[in-house]
Specification:
There is one protein chain. The protein has a domain of about 160 residues: Beta Polymerase, domain 2 (2-Layer Sandwich). The chain contains 21 helices and nine strands. The strands form two sheets. Strands 3-4-5-2-1-6-7 form a seven-stranded mixed sheet. Strands 8-9 form a two-stranded parallel sheet. α19 runs antiparallel to α20. The radius of gyration is 26 Å and the shape is elongated. The site of magnesium ion has 5 residues, from loops. The site of adenosine-5'-triphosphate has 13 residues, from α7.
Length: about 425
């Protein structure tokens, strides 16, 4: 960390170009209430950065000299969360504002691993020290919405103008303290279209392997943020270009060696996800993981099938293996991975088109995701067009047409319903 005394002087001029009308009233309100209670309180981080860039902030962060307990006393609807990094969630209407106490760089003793990774970051400080412990200069801009004044201790405005992402302080040390900052760097590059400052880029190349030492639980949220906000494609390409995609997805490593491009099914899924997000449609993370983890699942599945395993068993085994291996790097919660598995299995059953299973499949609550996954496999040449068209048509078909479509399937009993249960042909495919 640089010595705060050598940091550039605070720029308290008010020539920021934040239009107060763009601010969310809840964020202004929380700031006002803290100030009214006698504390310092300012907006900081992504919201200030995004507002200065004319973008709508994803969420609002408030920095204050009040401790979490003091913050909690100011608001009725406040909850202290986190251990490694304690903050307060203040509810204001439908908005949740994150209120963070000014911090300083943690002491060297006790709070770090051998690689210099910080284990806890709860030492209170003042605004000066708080600016210096933030990750990137453009993320360390403070703004008082009540006076319309900005504070820039780290030349963040210059970097913002030049569209440069620069680690505050010594980038090697800061990446070692918290390797997740490297994932964040990629996220901000993808989101903002910024370039890395040269020293930041060099440090990232040197430090990226430290990502392997990050507790998997911390990476899940960051990975979601990479892919769920409309710039997932770009994020994946940047991760690959910086040699980080295989660190986050070790199960994909064989597909990503030697400057290989990201597997087509992953690209397709991310393109679809980005398009949906940008149209304001919902996206679900299990679908994304279904695509991201598919190349290794498919490979294992094929191998197990060739050694004579029945299809569903092979799929379960392949999924178990790949999900477990991925969870050693990024802890995908079971609520997500269980749906990912359902998507794989259901998609397999769609391709099977067992006549008597069709109606049940159409009513399955994961049908849509499985159908979309099949379309994805079709787009990369893994499923044929006739199959996909059939499932597209049947969704719009009348009751009578559905019966007809099922009847004309192989084993569907022809035009008339058969009474006798049929022996399964082709039991496993
Ligand atoms: P967005 O909300 O658009 O994703 P953000 O910059 O606000 O981006 P948050 O995760 O909300 O990102 O974090 C808020 C602020 O907290 C950041 O702008 C940065 O100043 C600081 N911060 C977050 N994570 C770290 C970290 N790992 N190391 C240092 N500072 C961090
Ligand atoms: Mg934020």
């Amino acid at each position: 960390m640089p010595d705060p005394s050598t940091a550039p002087q605070a720029d308290t001029s008010s020539d920021h170009t934040i239009d107060p009308a763009m601010l969310h009233p809840a964020a202004v309100d929380v700031t006002r209430q803290l100030q009214a209670a006698g504390y310092e309180a300012l907006l900081v981080g992504g919201c200030v950065r995004d507002l200065l860039l004319g973008m709508a902030p994803k969420d609002y962060d408030v920095a204050t000299d009040a401790t979490p307990e003091q913050v909690a006393r100011v608001f009725r609807r406040a909850r202290i969360i986190g251990r490694r990094f304690r903050i307060v969630h203040v509810r204001a209407g439908r908005e949740v504002i994150e209120v963070t106490t000014f911090r300083r760089a943690p002491d060297d003793e006790g709070g770090q691993t051998e690689q210099g990774r910080i284990l806890a970051d709860n030492e209170w400080g003042d605004l000066d020290s708080d600016a210096l412990r933030r990750d990137f200069t453009v993320n360390a801009l403070y703004y008082d919405p009540l006076t319309n004044e900005g504070i820039d201790h780290v030349d963040g405005l210059v970097d913002l103008e030049n569209r440069v992402l620069r680690v505050i302080g010594d980038p090697r040390q800061r990446f070692a303290e918290d390797p997740v900052r490297m994932v964040r760097a990629v996220r901000f590059m993808a989101k903002l279209g910024f370039d890395l400052a040269p020293e930041t880029a060099a440090a990232l190349a040197e430090c990226r392997n430290l990502l392997a030492g990050v507790p998997p639980a911390r990476l899940f949220d960051e990975v979601l943020k990479l892919f769920h906000y409309g710039h997932g494609m770009r994020a994946a390409e940047l991760l690959q270009a910086h040699g980080m995609l295989s660190l986050l997805f070790p199960v994909l490593a064989p597909w990503l060696e030697d400057d290989a491009t990201v597997p087509a099914i992953v690209i397709r899924a991310l393109e679809n996800t980005d398009a949906r997000v940008n149209e304001g449609k919902a996206v679900i993370s299990p679908f994304l993981f279904a695509a991201l983890l598919w190349p290794p699942v498919r490979e294992r599945f094929d191998a197990l099938r060739s050694s004579g395993r029945p299809a569903i068993e092979a799929l379960h085994r392949a999924s178990d293996h790949v999900v477990a291996e991925e969870c050693a790097a990024v802890a995908v919660p079971r609520r997500v991975s269980s749906v990912t598995r359902e998507i794989w299995e259901l998609e397999h059953r769609l391709a099977d088109r067992r006549p008597r299973a069709v109606k049940g499949l159409l009513e399955n609550r994961r049908f849509r995701a499985a159908y979309d996954f099949m379309m994805l496999r079709n787009a990369v040449g893994e499923r044929d067009a006739e199959l996909c068209q059939w499932w597209t048509r049947i969704q719009e078909a009348s009751e009578a047409q559905v019966v007809e479509m099922i009847a004309t399937l192989p084993g569907g009993g022809g035009r008339r319903r058969s009474r006798r249960p049929r022996k399964r042909k082709n039991p496993a495919q």
